[in-house]
Amino acid sequence: MNKGKKIESLVGEALLKKVKELDNLSKEEKAKACGYYTVTKNGVERVNMMKFLNALIDAEGVQLDSKQGGNGRGGRSASYRISVQSNGNLLIGSAYTSQMGLKPGDEFEISLGRKHIRLRQIDSDGNPAEEE
Asked: Which Pfam families does its entry note (predicted)?
């Protein structure tokens, strides 16, 4: 595929964009096209899938390593920041819903502002709850 000089490994938004462009290729071919391979002394190209997958995870903003000193509790603490996922979704994690005492099935009304989203909980009568 890439004869001659090896390309620089892509990261971040450039990596995500390139992977989307190469939708029809296998994951190994995508990794190679994004620069995640080495050439052995015998001239054989070897794909480095682990580096490629880790770069994709980083580009998506997923944090797998804990930054806390290990206080014996599982999970992550709330950072009060979220990122739009590659599929366009926003995911509000359980750290926030448990902090608010929310249960499965609780409903919200969504209102969109210019650069914000407001959620108002719907009460049992189907009406937006009063703001505190």
From this structure: AbrB-like
Number of C-beta neighbours around residue 52 at 10 A? 23
Which of 32-46, 53-67, 75-89, 93-107 is most confident? Answer: 32-46
Cα end-to-end distance, the chain, whole Å: 60
CB 77 within 8 A of CB 64: no
The neighbouring-strand residues paired with 39 are 45
pLDDT tens-digit map of 45-65 = 899 999 999 889 888 877 766
Helix 12-21 / helix 49-60 crossing angle, nearest 10 deg: 110
Structure tokens at 77: 């603490």
With beta carbons less than 8 A apart as the criterion, state whether 38 and 48 touch.
yes
Q: pTM of the predicted model, to two decimals? A: 0.46
For the chain, the structural domain boundaries read: 12-60, 92-132
Beta strands in 14-126 (DSSP E): 37-39, 45-47, 108-112, 117-121
